[in-house]
Amino acid sequence: MQPIDRYTTLIQPIRQRARQNPESVAIVFVHDDGSEEKIRAAQLDAEAARYALALQACGVQPDELVILVLRHSQTLLFAFWGALYLGAIASIFPFLTEKLDPQIYMERVKELVTHSKARAVITFPEFKAELSALLVEAGCAVLSTADVTQSEAGETHNMEGRAKPVSPAKRVSPAKLVSPIYSAEKIAFLQHSSGTTGLQKGVALSHRSALNQIEAYSRSIELSDDDVIVSWLPLYHDMGLIAGFVMPLVVGTPLVLMSPFKWVRDPKVLLHAIQRHRGTLCWLPNFAYNHSARAIRAQDLAGLDLSSMRAFINCSEPCYDDSHQAFLTRFAACGVRKEALSTCYAMAENTFAVTQHPTGRAARLDWVDTRALQEKRQAKPAFAGASGATALVSCGVPIAGTEICIMDEGETGFANDQPAPERCVGEIALRGNCMLSGYYQRPDLTALNIRAGWYYTGDMGYVAEGELFVTGRKKDLIIVGGKNIYPQDLEAIANYTPGITPGRSVAFGVFDKKLGSENIVMVCELEEKGNSEATNKAIEMDLRRRVVQRSEIALADVRLVEGRWLIKTSSGKISRSANRDKYLKDF
Amino acid sequence: MTDIATQLSEYICKEALRRPNYNLGIDDALISSGLIDSFHLVDLAVFVEEQFGVHMDDTELNASAFDSVAQLSALIQQRIK
């Protein structure tokens, strides 16, 4: 393993490996049909250079933003590095899926391009015409994967990333690319942070931050030459982008990569890949533990050996012990040990990991008095398993170079920027050497969230004996199956759904123990009284359909109520938490 | 409703919707309407295999393969042979 601190940019280790060890396998790409393709270091380098040249030919300059509108594919992997090779900023946008309305999706791409002043979009040939037309006003070039000229190897890849031969006339040498020499402070990529649909925040991360994160994080998990990382995580999210893509490539850890789309529908593909490649590390969102335990049946486990895994790292959502237990119960017979279930608290604003539980030790549980936690915001130790006690899972300790501080909320419920005492719940703030440079082109938002050098995460938690415990979220953000959803976005959809009174809807999250994730419930007031059941059903289906087409979210429950059900605060606003409590009571 | 359709409907209402008394129509859009999400779809496939002995490929877990109880029921019926 190369020491990271000798690099100033992310592309140096990639290029170096291509020179020194060209045949080494950088990524094993697992196709949906189960076949595998090895991407070697030299090939990755050549492909990235091809994309860089193509972007350059389009007029993209260093520091300009390139947005990748591509599904999970080898193309996506190469295009990302291609942007970086040019010194441009890469940003991966979640690709259109079958449930989303294509028109709404394209409008979103257009909004993003316009607001962020992106210089180029790379997409598949089938979208080129439509996107070009849409983006012409914004002065954004649209590059199709078919436009990118061929490498010396004489191969190209189709949409699924399968190699196919190319005519000699289209070949170009990757040596033509002159890598710009630039500082580590340069922005490498943007990650899209939580934001309401109209106001996506782009977290801008420099090469320096990314390298610092990779160095500190690989140390915290004791990453070694014996490790093999296996991942299905989407690259448009920090977990997948860093732990499941950039980190292994920079460090040189073998990476086995499969599609998130395939994994959701067939979760055992992850386990088969782990066995085949003797995987040692895997990062998962909390709901993945539940999904795997439920969807994989006993007969699928026959002969399955997962004993090579030294850590399954749970991150990106509150971690629930029940989810770990469900996973352990199902897979212990395959060699999954309790000590392999680890945790991490992470966010794009710190590139990725903020804290990490020491690997090799089972994630520590803190049993606290439930009422004291909810009412007095104190984590008072209680007896394990006692009724009236809750178990919180430790997220471990800060990685080197990152500090956390629990900011006291005091009486008002607003952070008063003073550190809270141990076991006192407050807002988690962080600072360190792998933070965002800012929200891209949004200095106003940057100033809002960063005070005196501390980034205020919006998450609530406490520290006990040096370890971080995350208790919840400050704002109304709901996380469903790893997706950040703002209730106001869903309420806005209800506002123009016929039959529902505009401004009289509420959306909130309810934790679903079986799923190991939150689910969204909406309660909406009907415009008319005395509707027939059939009418109400039609309104419900209409609302559900509109929601899924815009957000892919399947609402867990929709309740249509007549006037007077919804609780309002004294100022006349609809209280999400009060109505949530009422829903849980009434329904 | 046929027996298969009834069983499917009961399962969906109870496990996916968590509303055992929900009035789920045999032709109601399940997937394209956002009534059931991807995770519940996978659970449904497991149920179908265990209950009817019919295997569904993961590539069939989408609205073009089936989008209603009626369609899924027909698919199952075809394979129980």
Key traits:
heterodimer, A: 587 residues, alpha/beta, Rossmann fold, GMP Synthetase, Chain A, domain 3, seven-stranded mixed sheet, globular, B: 81 residues, mainly alpha, Non-ribosomal Peptide Synthetase Peptidyl Carrier Protein, Chain A, 3 helices
Count of helical segments of chain B?
Answer: 3
> Please, how many helices of chain A?
16
Number of DSSP strand runs of chain B? 0
* Biggest interface: A-B, 28 and 29 residues
Could you say which overall geometry of chain B the principal axes of the C-alpha atoms support? globular
What is the rounded distance between the termini of chain A? 56 Å
Overall tally of structural domains of chain A: 3
Give the CATH class of the largest domain in chain A: Alpha Beta
The main sheet of chain B comes to: none
Let me know the CATH homologous superfamily of chain B: ACP-like
Structural class per helix/strand content of chain A?
Answer: alpha/beta
Order of helices and strands of chain B: HHH
Briefly note the CATH topology name of chain B: Non-ribosomal Peptide Synthetase Peptidyl Carrier Protein, Chain A
β-strand number of chain A = 30
Number of domains of chain B: 1
C-alpha Rg of chain A (nearest Å): 24 Å
Rounded mean pLDDT of chain B is 93
Helix- and strand-based class of chain B? mainly alpha
The CATH class of chain B is identified as: Mainly Alpha
How would you characterize the largest beta sheet of chain A?
7 strands, mixed
Q: What is the alpha-carbon Rg of chain B in Å? A: 11 Å
Concise summary:
The complex is a heterodimer of chains A (587) and B (81). Chain A has 587 residues and is an alpha/beta fold.
Give your account of this protein's structure:
The complex is a heterodimer of chains A (587) and B (81). Chain A has 587 residues and is an alpha/beta fold. Chain A contains 16 helices and 30 strands. A seven-stranded mixed sheet of chain A has the order 6-5-3-4-9-10-22, with helices on both faces. Chain B is an all-alpha fold. Chain B is built from three helices and no strands. Chain B has helices at 3-16, 38-52, 69-79. The longest helix of chain B has 15 residues, at 38-52. The radius of gyration of chain B is 11 Å and the shape is globular. The relative contact order of chain B is 0.21. Chain A binds chain B through residues 32, 98-99, 262, 264-267, 287, 291, 294-295, 297, 481, 515, 533, 537, 541, 544-545, 547-549, 553-557, and chain B through 17-19, 23, 25, 28-29, 31-43, 46, 49-50, 58-59, 61-64.
